[in-house]
Amino acid sequence: MQFGDTVAIFGAGPIRLLTTIAAKAAGASKIFVLDVSETRLEKAKELGAIDVFNSGKINPVEAVKQYAPDGVDITVEVAGVAPTYKSSFDVTRARGTVVIISIFAHAIEWNPMQLTNTGVKVTTTIAYTPTSFQQTVDLMGTGQLKPQDIITSQIELEDIVENGFEAFTNDKSQAKILVKLSGEM
CATH code for 6-142? Predict the structure, then answer.
């Protein structure tokens, strides 16, 4: 990502919210986040998204193209489902980049002509490199990256099942739950 890039992020879970924080720290000029959870979309807005869209209620491609008619420079696909994967290419400008971070639970069918017709580049990632890890630590040290902003709950270890695993599974407003191991955070 380069300073001033426009970014679309499909999904607003914990990884997506951290991606929003990272895009803002990298100097993205516009960040659009798409998800079906209104609560998570509000969190994305708090973290720096210029606009958020409920892709369950509106056409995500039309929504993004209202603000970036030629498409965004970078699209990050973190939802891991066929509709968002296909929309990722449609919201990306010609010769832009789509970054696939998601883990797909099921195989999807997709027509690579979406790339041929636009020259969109596709890249993926797995974890991080030593360089990106050090850059992240350095940015956290200066306060430019504040991952603690995605914390939605803090619980005691004895509450981990009900207020941890079950809450995270059933309550889409949860992004990151911290567990106190020794009575302190």
Answer: 3.40.50.720
